[in-house]
Design a protein that fits this description.
The protein has five helices and eleven strands; from the N terminus they run E-E-E-E-E-H-H-E-H-E-H-E-E-E-E-H. The protein is an alpha+beta fold. The strands form four sheets. Strands 7-6-5-10-11 form a five-stranded mixed β-sheet. A two-stranded antiparallel ribbon has the order 1-2. The longest helix has 21 residues.
């Protein structure tokens, strides 16, 4: 389910709120982002909210860092786990195709930079990995989910991918991803977006 929740202040635009709580992790709902002063929702065909993050290689990433380029963000649970390794390798193997289609690819998880650098080197990944250790991006994109493990409730990450256009608008999302055939599906969407953008420019 998608729940778009806005805490409004009379002194602020509708998309802004003051000290609201992130909601709905238990229900499986998504698309709610909280910071100290604002709460914003991730919505397809809308601009993504502001964010700043650090990636391997000393790269600074933000919502405006790749304007005029297609941006692919794939969120995964943890470095060096079987499913995440498979997904990372599949993005690696099709990386040149993504670049050819005009896309920049980043992997995102809660692992720290040391873990990311080792994971990247071990697999020979040609793209960078964002270390979201404070879960800011994970919450912003609504991928944090509560799970029951050994009878206890723990926070996990729902494997998800987001396709952002050159204009900074979220164009497509995949949630609860199954690794098999996923990268091919994302690449197909990237190529379609590139073609659509070229048609708009040419037209």
């Amino acid at each position: 389910p998608r729940i778009l929740y806005y805490c409004r202040s009379n002194a602020a635009p509708q998309r802004y709120a003051v000290k609201c709580h992130m909601l709905c992790a238990d229900s499986g709902a998504h698309a709610v982002y909280r910071t100290e002063n604002t709460i914003m929702a991730i919505v397809v065909d809308k601009l993504i909210p502001e964010f700043d993050a650090e990636a391997t290689g000393g790269i600074k990433v933000s919502n405006t860092a790749h304007l005029d380029q297609i941006l692919v963000l794939f969120f995964y649970p943890k470095d060096n786990t079987p499913g995440c390794t498979t997904e990372a390798l599949e993005f690696r193997d099709r990386y040149k195709d993504f670049v050819k289609a005009g896309a920049v690819v980043y992997g995102v998880s809660r692992d720290n930079m040391v873990s990311h650098e080792a994971f990247k080197e071990k697999l020979g990944l040609p793209y960078e990995l964002i270390a979201d250790t404070e879960e800011k991006m994970c919450h912003m994109f609504g991928v944090v989910k509560n799970k029951i493990m050994y009878g206890k409730k723990v926070k996990g990450i729902s494997r998800s991918t987001f396709l952002i256009g050159p204009d900074g608008v979220l164009r497509q999302e995949w949630r609860g991803v199954k690794v098999e055939n996923h990268v091919a599906e994302v690449l197909k969407a990237v190529k379609a977006l590139k073609k659509a953008n070229a048609s708009m420019v040419g037209g």
